[in-house]
Amino acid sequence: MSTPATPSTPPPAGFSAPSRPAGTAAPATAPTPDSAPVARPGPDWRIRFGALSLIWGFSFLLIKVGTEGYAPFQVTLGRLLSGTAVLAVAMAVRRERLPRGTRTWGHLAVAAFFLNALPFSLFAYAELTIPSTLAGICNATSPLWGMMLSLVALSEDRPTRRRVAGLGLGFLGVLTVLGAWQGFSGLDLSGTAMALLASLSYPIGWIYVRRTLAGSSSSTLSLTGSQLLLGTAQIALVTPLFTSAPDGFPLVPTLAVVALGALGTGLAVLVQYGLVEEIGPTTAQMVTYFIPVIATAAGVVVLGERLSWNTPVGALVVLAGAALARSRARGAGAGTGAQP
User: Fold this and answer.
1) Predicted structure pTM score
2) Helix, strand, coil proportions of the chain in percent (round to 5)?
3) Which tens digits make up the pLDDT trace of 99-145?
4) 337 Cβ partners below 8 Å, 6+ apart?
């Protein structure tokens, strides 16, 4: 959703590690390096990988359906409430405690804004005027933004010809998706810009997390749950200022919002971290490449959205550029991807 070099620690709620999407929790423990999968009870990791791809791929469809019955901020609030509830249950089962220290909570508040409150709201507003297929493809640019920002903000990242070529190819793919040669004819520029800004927000948040919370003694689950809690509080304060109470609770949009939060923001984060621990971050983050494909198929098949040739072609170019930009020696890097 929401990925360029492999991070030294897992990402925060709503975010697949940068250069490793936007698509997440503050880093507390380093993930196991990529190697042979570690045997774990439960479904095979390939089944969980496929489920995670489907959940995040369908998130853009669920956002679109949710906005048919609720204002964008209300969709985001419902999503965060449901996601926070899932992680609260997981923390209770594992007897996890909330982080301590006002400084940690301050950093988590900033992370919650850039990784949850801001991008979730931007995507919801964007899908008022653009198809869910386009929103899903815009989300795929998060690794490109992350790579570009990490070259500036993270001292361990250095530009190489391959990475610069990948960035150039990726943004050429963005122009192809948008139909730049047609003067962006028929494209809602404000909605598209909001979707691209949402994708940019993920790597900004991830880089902030890496620089401020990398040494936290709290567990990843504790930090992630606290981050979602703070994101929920932020949106709860804003929503009454910009929206009025809904007249009712339409069934389908309500179910879409609950599923978006409980599955796409809560359960998916738990599945993601389980995959990182079992198969390593590099393989786990490959889910990033399936999200726009599934989002496009869902939008066309379920919602009947129209698709011109430049959209899938541009999406493939974006993904090829992201893959090239993040390719590097095994075990190096820091990345940026996003949960939608």
Assistant:
1) 0.82
2) 65, 0, 35
3) 988 999 999 999 999 999 999 999 999 999 999 999 998 998 888 88
4) 1, 2, 3, 4, 11, 15, 16, 17, 18, 19, 20, 21, 22, 23, 142, 143, 146, 202, 285, 288
